[in-house]
Amino acid sequence: MTRYVYDFIEGDRSRADLLGGKGANLAEMTRLGLPVPPGFTVGTDACRAYLATGSPPAGLFAEVDTHLRRVEEQVGRRLGDPHDPLLLAVRSGGRYSMPGMMETILDIGLTDVTVAGLAARTGDARFAWDSYRRLIQMFGRTVHGVPAEEFDHEWAALRATAGPDGPDAAQLRDLVSTYQKIFLRVVGHEFPQSPQEQLRQAVCSVFASWNSARARIYRRREHIPDDLGTAVNVMAMVFGNLGPDSGTGVAFTRDPATGLPGVYGDYLPDAQGEDVVAGIRNTVALPELARLDPASFRQLTGIMATLERHYRDLCDVEFTIERGRLWMLQTRVGKRTAAAAFVIAAQLVDEGLITLDEALCRVSGAQLDQLMFPAFDLAGAPTPLTVGVGASPGAAAGRVVFDSAAATAADGPVILVRRETNPDDLPGMIAAAGVLTARGGKTSHAAVVARGMGRTCVCGADALVIDPQRGEFTVGDRVVRAGEVISIDGTTGRVYPGAVPVQPSPVARYLAGELAPQADPLVAAVHRLLGHADAVRRLGVRANADTAADARRARALGAAGIGLCRTEHMFLGGRRELVERLILADGPDAVAGALAALLPLQRADFTELLAAMDGLPVTIRLIDPPLHEFLPPLHELTARVARTEASGRDPGRDGELLAAVRRMHEANPMLGLRGVRLGLVVPGLFAMQVRAVAEAAAQRVRDGGDPRPEIMVPLVGDVRELAVVRAEAERVLATVPDAPAVPIGTMIEVPRAALTAGQIATQAHFFSFGTNDLTQLTWAFSRDDVEGSFFGAYLERGIFEVSPFESLDTAGVGQLVRLAVAQGRATRPELTVGVCGEHGGDPDSVAFFADAGLDYVSCSPYRVPVARLAAGRAAVAAGTGTSDSR
Ligand code: ADP
Ligand code: MG
Ligand code: MG
């Protein structure tokens, strides 16, 4: 027979899947001999059965009754005993903590009969009737959805007429009878007078609360699966509302905000747990308990020290004191800020409780990421103008500008405000302190690009009405003009008027070499844990960088080379004209002339880049995007040509450009003439780039440097494409005196390349997974189209837990990665394999890449420390860390 119910003493903390976090930890505390009221847990499998069928599984309540008998024996009271009734708390609690999202019902077991018994036993009739009132309200709301106002209204009325000491027992008894009438009117039947019936209904309604709207929304946000179900904890009630020597509280074993040692918490004398949440009276700081009840305080701090040693981590607890006797109602490893996570992990190493390996696993790349951004000093911040989506963390203040040109022209910090951004806004995004858009979510262009650059971004602030022509935006009736200062918080999404003071991140200053590691406890902790990550990780970390400035920054942040230099960025700006010449060239001589003009510019870029990364590998990708991306947009040209023609002049070059744009128009440029295909059909284009690389490297060699360029061919799908390009590249390399050996490899970003990686490796010195395109092409997603149109719905409906562009789809795209690594290395055991998509900086994806046996990840410079940390954690998780305890 299936078993669903476990006494606290039978469980332990390893069984949270079955018992839920709360139940498993109550079991653990019971085992430790701590004062936990007796009880039992109904496992999550009973909830899953209930949710699947709509009714409790057969035999469940018979089993509950058996366990209830044992609780009755331990407490020495029976449920429903008219003279001395046992009361029960029925508490939800799933595998993962979902604070306040599901239901808990207290004081189960009170009826018109037992209420008198409770009054007699406690000698406090007022307390007994007050408890009954609480039960009817909680039970009515939770089990039958009676709106809280129905009861609150009466309660408020009574409190208004009661004396200074609050309502007396008789008044509360009358209130209970009013509550029962409300219950009857709204629910359609009497409040149940059978304690067993109350218990059964309470258990079922806790099951059902798993699927409440707020619980579902919370799970989606926290990426908690929808099919786990909740456990139900049934335990004896203890009473914090039995007078001044009773009370209830919550506490942390260290400061959850800063991580610093000490006892933190709140205590509310003469109260039951829900009063703390309701904020009916003000709590006192926990140290006050030392004065009110020194014995309980000592016992509590002793228990907290025990728990911390036992769990080897920060714990939080909920406790109740009933007439001077302390009871523990809950504990768990406590939530904490990112800063506290680092500080606590390092402290616990010093205290000998955990190893450095464990400490590393206690902090995450996402937390380090948060700590690298500046933050607003919120004391005295004004009311926000509006709130959008916090898309790229950080705090930025600056004058409002509405276009890229104004952003680049301005001196002093600016906030670029756009309805949405596109690739043409890039210079403005680079120049701005922050980006604010009215449209788009966390995967919009603005969000993705800003995160990649470490630029603060708030997007989707849909209350903004932007009018660039008038140079203003409005939020409701508030008008903000170009040049006015606003502040945006990329973590919370808040947009403030004026300049909110910003505090630079000490962690970022340390990582940039501006602060000593001992500057403060947080910086010291980051220094230590990141150092350990570097010591244990197998996975190298490179950066994606196109300029020498980015390369220097990346190197300072710990990058061991460049994994992706996008040469197309070198064709933008003032050089567009040269590219236009190339595209318009008719005949081989004109093409050669245009390429010859580009050569010295490329060479100079590469020389600088190789100097910045001297001694480290620099992977240079040959031009990738379709050439028409370098031409003006069709509608712009059409308009320009039409204007010129209307005024009777010859459109000249514009006319030629327009013809070229029309000629090159592609229905689906992502799948068109780009990458290696371009190199194969535009004679001399790749050769020019290869020559620029070789000549730059040769120059560096002559200058005494140690250049290590690598040439990478994009969008290869077949080994023959690569073979042709490689042969041509090697011919060029051979003609450049002093050039070092230059490995030639390929992106693996087309599914066919992954599937034929064994063949491709015959021609490639290295692979680099382009996981952005590989994701697009594996899913048949055009990123620009899908993110805006239906990703929201997919996330909403649980088809994705996270966008596959944010975190690698390991089940699908990841399989192609594994396959290609295995086949590539089978052909060429010394093959170097890396990844250069955005996933290279995503902590979860980094863990996957480590496991897949890659040699390195390459990510934007700002994410290098995050990737280092994630790679260290991955090594520990794979069992290849050290167990060094210091
Ligand atoms: P949540 O998960 O929302 O914190 P809990 O199940 O912890 O819900 O219950 C909320 C509050 O109910 C607790 O903080 C505690 O004060 C009170 N409570 C829970 N169990 C008992 C009990 N056995 N006796 C008295 N009060 C209890
Ligand atoms: Mg709780
Ligand atoms: Mg690509």
From TrEMBL:
Matches recorded under PROSITE patterns: PEP_ENZYMES_PHOS_SITE
Required cofactor(s): Mg(2+)
MF annotations from Gene Ontology: ATP binding; kinase activity; metal ion binding; pyruvate, phosphate dikinase activity
Domain PEP-utilising enzyme C-terminal, first and last residues per copy: 532-872
UniProt xrefs under InterPro entries: ATP_grasp_subdomain_1, PEP-util_enz_mobile_dom, PEP_util_AS, PEP_util_C, Phosphohistidine_dom_sf, PPDK_AMP/ATP-bd, Pyruvate_phosphate_dikinase, Pyrv/PenolPyrv_kinase-like_dom
Entry similarity comment: Belongs to the PEP-utilizing enzyme family.
Listed name of the protein: Pyruvate, phosphate dikinase
